[in-house]
Design brief:
The complex is a heterodimer of chains A (120) and B (470).
Chain A (H helix, E strand, L loop, with lengths): L13 H12 L7 H24 L4 H12 L4 H11 L3 H26 L4
Chain B lengths: L2 H18 L3 H18 L7 H14 L13 H4 L2 H13 L3 H10 L15 H25 L3 H9 L4 H7 L1 H13 L4 H21 L5 H19 L6 H20 L6 H13 L2 H11 L2 H7 L2 H7 L4 H12 L6 H15 L9 H5 L14 E2 L1 E2 L9 E5 L5 E8 L5 E8 L2 H5 L3 E6 L4 E6 L5 E2 L18
Antiparallel strand pairs in B: 1-8, 2-4, 3-4, 4-5, 5-6, 6-7
Helix pairs in contact in B: 1-2, 2-3, 2-5, 3-5, 6-7, 6-10, 7-11, 8-9, 10-11, 11-12, 18-19
Classes of the chains: A mainly alpha (120), B alpha+beta (470).
């Protein structure tokens, strides 16, 4: 199994950068342009969703309600950052863990799919 | 016991051996025994040792595909009478008509002694057998078919133009054979055509290894063109990448159904907000970088990289940095720096026009010059904001676009000029490569990574001149 990609805080879009590197490690570095762009788009969205699903387990229903309200009011980045600082314990570690779990799952499935399709 | 009963009895033994054969060598050996018996039985089929070996090996090759059906019931060579068996072996030996050979070997195997059909051959297996036979001995038939082409089909074949109807006409002699086989296994003509195209595409690779026979190359190209037309009609099978994306999506959906408490797309919004909040360094830095990127990037980029990428176009430099970002030989800090710089550069609104240094607001190092190498080239923008693009006159006064290129060290090494008619006549867009003295020195393909090759391409230059005025 390939080593998981590094989650860079310097990237413009850390999740997209992570997914791009993940695909390269999964053996799709030379996939076609349009197909690859679509897959990156989908996987980035799914990585974000996965992080959301994982973090949800760490917050209470009242906090989720508060988040809904913030989202409805189109809160600023600073307000959202404050929300996660206060309401989600160890938010950064949890985000990283969720992203790594997603990456591991992706690599495992990619390996299995490539074997099923006799690509490797 | 009568002689015929004895033969049947002996053959049963060989068939059992064949069914029990665990590897190719055993299968060849069993086939060889049958061929020996055949040569003894059919006087007109007297074969020398090498010919017998050849028949056995080819028959074993055609049986390599795994199937739940016992091998002894799959081939007319084994199941038919001695006369039919001799005909099949003769086809195997002489390689004259591969498709008929496969037809006699596979299709008739599924008819019983009264000519009644007992079942259909598996489509994939039949296609594999056809493709195998075609690959082995198809070239002579193709060449003959090509020689018979006249008119628009021949012209279209040479220039890769025209619609699927023209290609179908070009492939008609082969399609007829495939259709004959396809009908025997219950497939329609369209399936047969697709199989024919697949098989003929295989010829491309083979023919490129050949010396003078370029017709299979043309046919292979034609097959590819036709196949792409067919693909638009037939829904394409999802690729591994698509399957992966869909599978991850399905897994998240399941998780959401089990654990999710948010509605609709809120879980994704929650995740995206969390990422923005806890990994927000990039967002904050990006804003500051847009106003003044140089101080930060100057700190994180190795000096050698600045030297190397400064005069390349921002787009080419970003592409190379992306490659470096996943290069396992580099230190992780360097990978992160490459990824970061690539992201910043790609955000520039004129990424294909400006130089890397210009996009980042860096002080560019002095230009360096070198000889045009054989190998990887990069588009360069030595004048910073403007691409070094110029127009010059080619053959028959046609305007040619040229632009500067750099080598892998970032030194200016020459120009590439686009050959506007290359696609029209040769099939592939083409650059002519010029050294700093303006003399033509090789070529590069425009539809792939910029890589200079020596000499003149097989399709030839159409509109670019021997030298460009500098």
């Amino acid at each position: 199994m390939e080593e998981l990609p590094f989650i860079s805080k310097l990237a413009h879009d850390p999740v997209r950068a992570y997914v791009e590197t993940l695909l390269a490690k999964a053996g799709f570095a030379h996939a076609g342009g349009v197909e690859r762009a679509e897959a990156v788009e989908t996987l980035t969205a799914e990585a974000e969703r996965r992080i959301g699903l994982e973090l949800m387990q760490a917050v209470d229903p009242h906090s989720l309600q508060a988040f809904r309200q913030l989202a409805a009011e189109d809160a600023t980045e600073e307000e959202l950052a404050a929300f996660f600082d206060v309401r989600v314990p160890d938010a950064e570690a949890r985000v990283r863990q969720a992203l790594e779990a997603f990456g591991r799952e992706c690599l495992e499935r990619a390996t299995a799919l490539r074997a099923e399709l006799h690509l490797s | 016991m009568k002689a015929s009963d004895l033969r049947r009895h002996l053959l049963d033994d060989e068939l059992e051996r064949l069914d029990l054969a665990s590897d190719r060598a055993e299968a060849v050996s069993a086939f060889r025994s049958i061929v020996d018996r055949l040569a003894e039985t059919e006087r007109r089929f007297a074969l020398d040792r090498s010919a017998r070996d050849k028949v056995a090996v080819r028959a074993a090759s055609l049986l390599q595909a795994s199937s739940p059906v016992p091998v002894s019931t799959r081939l007319a060579f084994l199941k038919g009478d001695w006369h039919g068996r001799a005909a099949a072996a003769s086809a195997l030996l002489h390689e004259g008509d591969a498709l008929r050979c496969v037809g006699s070997l596979s299709v008739r195997a599924w008819r019983d002694g009264h000519g009644e059909r007992r079942g259909l051959l598996d489509g994939a297996e039949a296609a594999r057998a056809l493709a195998t036979a075609f690959r082995e001995v198809g070239s002579p038939g193709v060449l003959k078919a090509q020689e018979e082409l006249r008119g628009s089909a021949a012209v279209a074949l040479r220039h890769e133009r025209g619609g699927s109807a023209v290609w179908e006409r070009a492939l008609r002699p082969l399609l007829r054979e495939f259709a004959w086989n396809a009908q025997g296994i219950g497939k329609d003509r369209r399936d047969a055509a697709l199989e024919a195209i697949k098989a003929s595409a295989v010829l491309t690779g083979q023919a490129r290894q050949g010396v003078r026979d370029d017709l299979p190359v043309l046919l292979g190209s034609a097959a590819r063109a036709s196949l792409s037309v067919r693909r638009s009609e037939v829904p394409a099978a999802p690729s591994a990448l698509n399957l992966l994306a869909e599978e991850m999506k399905a897994r998240n959906r399941l998780r959401s159904e089990i654990f999710g408490v948010l509605e609709g797309d809120e879980d994704r919004l929650f995740g995206a907000s969390a990422i923005g909040a806890v990994l927000s360094t990039a967002i904050v830095r990006r804003r500051s970088i847009r106003t003044s990127p140089a101080p930060l990037l100057g700190l994180i980029l190795p000096e050698a990289w600045v030297e190397r990428f400064a005069h390349l176009t921002a787009a080419d430099a970003a592409g190379e940095l992306e490659r470096l970002a996943v290069d396992p030989r580099l230190h992780r800090d360097a990978q992160v720096a490459a990824e970061f710089a690539s992201g910043v550069v790609k955000a520039h609104p004129a990424v294909v026009r400006v130089s890397f240094a210009e996009a980042l607001g860096l002080q560019p190092p002095p230009l360096r010059f070198d000889r045009l190498p054989i190998g990887r080239l990069f588009r360069a923008a030595p004048r910073g904001k403007r691409p070094a693009r110029m127009l010059c006159r080619g053959k028959n006064g046609r305007l040619i676009r040229c632009r500067a290129v750099a080598d892998t060290t970032g030194a200016m090494v020459g120009y590439v000029a686009f050959d506007p008619l290359s696609r029209e006549y040769g099939g592939r867009p083409l650059f002519a490569a010029y050294g700093l003295d303006g003399q033509r020195q090789g070529y590069a393909w425009a539809d792939e990574t910029l890589y200079r090759w020596a000499g003149v391409p097989e399709q030839g230059f159409v509109s670019v001149p021997e030298s460009i005025p500098l």
